[in-house]
Amino acid sequence: MNGGDSLKIEAVLRRSWGALWADFRHYVQLGLISWAFVVISIVLGAWSRSVEAVFDVALVGPLAVGIFAVVLARLRGRPFDLAHLRRGMEIYPAALVAGLACLLAGLVGLCVLCIGVVAAAAALFIYLPLVADGGDPFKGLRESTEFALAHPVPMLLLALLVLALKIAAALLTCTLGLIVVAPFIYVLVAVVYEEHHVHAPR
Q1: Which pTM was predicted?
Q2: For residue 143, what are the domain limits?
Q3: Count of domains in the chain?
Q4: Is residue 1 part of a domain?
Q5: What are the tens digits of pLDDT across the range 34-82?
Q6: Cα angle, residue 65 at apex, residues 61 and 70 outer, rounded to 5°
Q7: Residue 56 is assigned to a structural domain of this protein
């Protein structure tokens, strides 16, 4: 695996934006799906916090895995196809574990204040696409963390950027910003995984 200097943030952002813009009318569908998930979660939370928690835990991982399956297929030259969303259900146990791992990492990060959240996000940056690509959800935790440690500065900066985008999108017009921002984040993470992990020199 290459060292951190091989991962150039500017190049990753440029590649991600290019990929997003080339298929924007398709990728915005993923944004709508993400926004709908958040709205449903908020509505359920207003009714019952426990129901909201079960909904989030049961579906956040499978949905994210399915979305990354869609994005990875497109980055690899296949047609944009929402049918790949079923990937999250096809490997439901692994996707469920992946979702729980991300939720728990975020909670642990909060206990160590803001730097902990950024560090956790960096450590698991490529974790979900890795699981979507057939990786073991337990070994994937180590693999994703090792990748982040091999690229410490760019991964921390990218994680910070993604967190800032998520916060901005959540605040923008009552979460509607997610419709545009979420697809960019998916593509960004998938590009880092595909170009700097899958195809990285070994």
Answers
A1: 0.91
A2: 13-195
A3: 1
A4: no
A5: 999 988 988 998 888 898 889 888 999 999 999 999 999 999 999 999 9
A6: 150
A7: yes
